[in-house]
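User: Could you check the structure of this?
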Amino acid sequence: MASGPNVRDLFDMSGRVAIVTGGGTHLGTAMAEAIGELGGTVVLASRRLEVCEEAAAGLGEQGLDAHAARCDATDEADVQSLVDGVMEKHGRLDVMLCNAGGSPADDDTPNADVAKFREAVGMNINSTFICAQTAARVMIGQGGGKIITIGSTHGIMGTDKRLYEGLGHKRSSIGYFAAKGGVVNLTRALAAEYGEHNITVNCLSPGQIPKPTVKPTMVERMRLRQPIQRSGQPKDLKGAVALLASPAGDWITGLNLLVDGGWSTF
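Assistant: Sure, the predicted structure tokens are below.
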């Protein structure tokens, strides 16, 4: 006989509420969609409310329970207000997906701008810490929850400059590499802190998932660099999010899960 719930039931998120920061575009919207498709309520939040409203409306047209909110994830008061609003409206917070971040444009080292380096740290490490800690206060009170951070293959490896030569494609800033590495280990530290409260903390590290604005020649060069020789797409993160956000991942914490088509194997 089976020793527990049916595996389909383990991925059921009915009645659960999630915040996805940076949820209005690209990877954020796809990850929010995954939670919504499992029956969860999703709140898409970013500094650009109108973008989140448009994305939430699109998810709503699919029959998903999606809402929009404005929040600057680097601002502690903003994040607290977001969490308070979710608690007031929905009564609980089960998942905080700390997706807000980015790579500010900068020159390559040794001519990188220290101010841009600090900005990258703020956009990625500071925002992740603020969102995770604010959510944890609520989750401790309700007996558990899930925190998912977003790293990158850039957080565990350097870059081959030759990949970008001759195409006019700007690499991620050196601060982004440092910041994403910090997010990976911040995740481990928070997992160790929050495990006793039944809160799991895991990092999802995407590989090369190009935005539509990336030149086709660059996309093709990245494709050929991967063992699985196709371009990554936002939907490729949905399965990993389903695992880490749902009860299926209840005994997984402190993990850095690479979803990169094998990019990091070379």
